[in-house]
Amino acid sequence: MSATAQTTPTIDELTDSLLSLYKEAQYTSAINLADEIEAQLDTATRADKDSLFCTLQVFKGKSYYRKNQPQKAIDALDRGIQRWESKIGKKGDQYAFMLDNQGLYYISVGDSVSSQKGLQRTLQALNVINDIPDKAVSSDMQGVLCHIAEAYSNVKMPKDAIVYEIRCLNICEKLNGKHSEEYIDELPYLSKYYLEAGDTVNADKTDLDKETLKNEYDKGQRDLPNADQRDFTSAEVCHKYSYEALRCADFYLNHLITSNYMDQCRVYLMNWVDASPDIKINAPESYAKLLKDKNGLPYFVAYIAGCVKYSIENEEKEYSPLMHYSATIDMLNFYINNKELTGKVKSLDKAVSLYNKSEDALVDYIVEQYPKEDNNEK
Q1: CA dist., res. 161 & res. 181, Å (int)
Q2: Rounded CA gap, 43 and 366, in Å?
Q3: Would the pTM of this model clear 0.70, i.e. be above it?
């Protein structure tokens, strides 16, 4: 009788486990696993060896930070930053991300010396991210500006904090609108910096703006982009407003079909997809038939919204099996939430019943729907 051989998990499998541990808030286990992966990485031959090493330091830094051990978080990021600078250079998204994270960890220490170091790091991150295409209006840019403002506040320079917090809010408004939890939750920081600067008038005005926006938000008011205000006649214009397309896709997929702004989002999405060279969608024939079903149109739009979301978030414009899979899951979730409002759709009911039967059955169904020949038609 022979013993069953146990396979050793690959570095990629261990990295997936590391992500799961972090998401489950098992920070000590995540740190230990990151150390284990790092030891294996020392003898590995991989093209992404250096970037993966830096990713491990990011996870360790975030885990130490969650454990309220900022100095260990700072030390982990030091190793990542030094490796990136020596092997890749002082550039790139991940480099800016590490600089900004380390700046945040320095700021969290709270003393003036650490805050000054945090300010230097976050300003350095801003210089890097300014050179990255398409980051001018992004959550990454918003985060960096927010941390710079906090650092200036900690070093008793509130007027500079105000400047960067206003820039942060301007980005937040473009990404989410003023009538959003993200924007409303950010306003108290601006008020705080005004008070630190002795400007009670603007502090009071900011507090009043917050209350007004909160009341309007609670009553259902949102700020969604309007296709009538955009001229999608050039690739540059379409690309410039891709963040608005993502906002419309997110809103459409996460609200009931009876919600306000759904038609507005639908029109924006379809116009943007039709004009933009940044995305290519070859919707399966079986999904295109939804357009002929009296109850099916909202779900075809949901599939398009899912493709848009996947494409922009992953920076992939080509239609692919992964885009199709992600968009189908989005469409089916949207169907489950809305079918009592629109009436049932036979083909989508079949897909949902397969999921109830087994996840593998649903996966097989989704794979079967993918076009056999991708002609990149929208």
Answers
A1: 22
A2: 39
A3: yes
**pLDDT 10s digits, 62-109:** 999 999 999 999 999 999 999 999 999 999 999 999 999 999 999 999
Angle at 274 between CA 244 and CA 347, to 5 degrees: 95
CA atoms within 13 A on the CB side of 320: 12
State the DSSP H helix or E strand holding residue 252, giving kind and residue range, or none if neither: helix 242-253
Long-range contacts of 294-300 (CB under 8 A, 24+ apart): 294/343, 295/342, 295/343, 295/344, 295/345, 296/345, 296/348, 298/257, 298/266, 298/334, 298/338, 298/342, 299/331, 299/334, 299/335, 299/342, 299/345, 299/348
Distance of CA 237 to the CA centre of its chain: 22
CA distance 188 to 333: 35
Please tell me the distance from the alpha carbon of residue 23 to that of residue 52, in angstroms, as a whole number. Answer: 18
Q: Report how far apart, in Å, the C-alpha atoms of 253 and of each of 29, 73, 235, 280 are.
A: 35, 37, 25, 19
Averaged pLDDT for residues 30-56: 90
DSSP 92: S
Smallest Cα–Cα separation from 311: which of 297, 326, 301, 299? 326
Other C-beta atoms within 10 Å of 51: how many?
Answer: 18
**Which CA distances in Å does 84 have to 26, 79, 186?**
27, 9, 32
> Hey, how many other C-beta atoms are within 10 angstroms of the C-beta on 139?
14
- DSSP single-letter state for residue 42: T
pLDDT for 1 equals 40
Query: Alpha-carbon distance 368 to 356, whole Å?
Result: 18
Angle between helices 181-196 and 158-176 (to 10 degrees): 170
Average pLDDT of every residue of the chain? 93
Higher pLDDT, 373 or 326: 326
**Average pLDDT estimate for 139-157:** 96
Q: What would the pLDDT profile of 104-133 be if each residue is shown by its tens digit?
A: 999 999 888 999 999 999 999 999 999 998
Q: What is the mean pLDDT of the segment spanning 207-222?
A: 97
How far apart (Å, rounded) are the C-alpha atoms in residues 274 and 291? 16
264-282 CB burial, b ≥16 within 10 A, e <16? bbbebbbbbbebbebbbbb
